[in-house]
Amino acid sequence: LAQLFRPLDLLGWVYRTVRQGLIDMAAMFELIDTPAEVEDAPGAPALVVRRPGVAFENVVFGYEPGRTILQGLSFAVPAGAHVAIVGPSGAGKSTIARLLFRFYDPRSGRVTIDGQDIAQVTQASLRAAIGIVPQDSVLFNDTIGYNIGYGRAEATPEAIEAAARGAAIWPFIERLPAGLDTEVGERGLKLSGGEKQRVAIARTLVKDPPILLLDEATSALDSRTEQDILATLHRVSRDRTTISIAHRLSTIAGADEILVMDQGRLAERGSHPALLRAGGLYAEMWRRQQAEKAAPAGQSG
Ligand code: ATP
């Protein structure tokens, strides 16, 4: 009997893996406009993550021949550390995220996780190791429980509840008439931006990845909600290697290291206080954002 079921298990696994990949892609919509064109190397093994350190080693990359975006980028995120990537629009922040997901391969140099070149392992294992909390999450026209547990078919109601608690959305779900079985999305209950963000966090908790990629919302939540979500993310990212792409510097001031990108190069790096002291690009961006915050809404251009 086991013999009979194995192919079915495999099929189920393939289905879930592909689906997980597709949904992560959909979630990455903001990060990617071209479908992935990379293929698994023949006989590629799965990524084995024991200590989830991430490294970019002298990565050169461009989307089109003749235009280089990343010009020999090197940085390391030690296992368990939180590194934030900031920089002006077009600096290459999202490009780094796309390379980490291996939507593209570098022209030269390599990206490694726990010492393994991500171009040499299966994409399914790579993507299983990284959870994204994107700026705008896609909700399915299905129940809120499904939306939290999808992509992990074996997620029990208990696991879904635990994830919802971890993402601080359980009290909200508990008050819904049908609890986890409440329909959400276009045809069901509409969730606020903050609630959707929490569903995305709960989804990530169900997946339980060793590496987190936080892609900060540009569309602002109200500041109270934002503070609450940040506190939740902070809790969730403890004990995980975390890379965040941030537009608002106030959200990443506590990162272990901040990488300041400018035109595909690492312009500055350091902790928030060190970068402020250095008085360079980061200090200038910080000063500008503080001034914008102080100005009445709508007057900052
Ligand atoms: P933002 O803060 O505005 O999101 P970013 O720092 O994330 O910017 P990237 O999206 O990484 O910037 O873009 C870096 C450069 O690569 C930009 O000059 C952009 O025009 C270019 N670029 C991005 N995606 C593509 C693509 N699919 N094809 C060609 N060029 C691209």
From TrEMBL:
Compartment(s) of residence: Cell membrane
Keywords: ATP-binding, Membrane, Nucleotide-binding, Transmembrane, Transmembrane helix
Main location: membrane
Any one GO molecular function term: ATP binding
Domain of life of the source: Bacteria
Residues annotated as domain ABC transporter: 54-288
Name used for this protein in its record: ATP-binding cassette domain-containing protein
Gene source species: Pelagerythrobacter marinus
